[in-house]
Amino acid sequence: MLNRLVRHTHFKKAYKFVTAEVRLLASIAIVSGLVLGFFSLADEVGEGDLDVFDNFILMLFRDPDNVDLLVGPVWAHEMVRDITALGSFSLLGLIVLGVSAYLLLLRLKSEATLIVMSVAGGTILSTVLKWTYSRPRPDLSVMSTQFTSSFPSGHAMLSAVTFLTLGTLLAKIAPNRKIRIFFLGTAIFLTAVVGLSRIYLGVHFPSDVLAGWCVGAAWALLCNIAATVLQRRGEVTASVGSLLAKNAHGRHI
Length: 253
Description:
Pfam families: PAP2
Protein name: Phosphatase PAP2 family protein
Shape: globular
Keywords: Membrane, Transmembrane, Transmembrane helix
Radius of gyration: 22 Å
Distance between the termini: 35 Å
Strand content: under 5%
């Protein structure tokens, strides 16, 4: 009986180890694929191979008789403008500060630091890429003057970096599976709608948004890999539930 229990325990540990390693390798493979996708898009944009595709998608949201007019009712236009603001630097910064403050209140200093460094690094990377490619914006924008170049979309990239980094890290410290799914699903949804709003408003070409998603998701996954390594070392808490249980135990002592 004891021998069977020992064998079962060793099997569970081995299974968890193998599963964790497979997930880590899969994450690295996905990051590689996303980076490759970004450079493929960059090459095709530079050669003009995506011009027809970009213009076709943009015109789906324009009145064919007057390309300066968006399709849909006026209230929809305002709603999309509100959605696109979710990917602005100022609003994302406030979200990061709010979540980081919450984590600090839970005494999760490493997690808060990781989020701030991840988003700050993604912001720097986005700026460097925009300077490097310097693609002009579409001539269809209904918004105010844009001050940065078009490729990749900063809103799409930074929303992916911020929301996916927050989603994956919060999922890691979530107390149960349902909350983990909620965090990840919300992060993916917000990333998607921000990028689509940029296309609808004509502020970016579709290839700009696709490229922003690729590099933003790759960066967020890299940060997730870093969080996984830190979690194994015990520098990132396994879950909020375990932290609260530990604190409760300390109070009882």
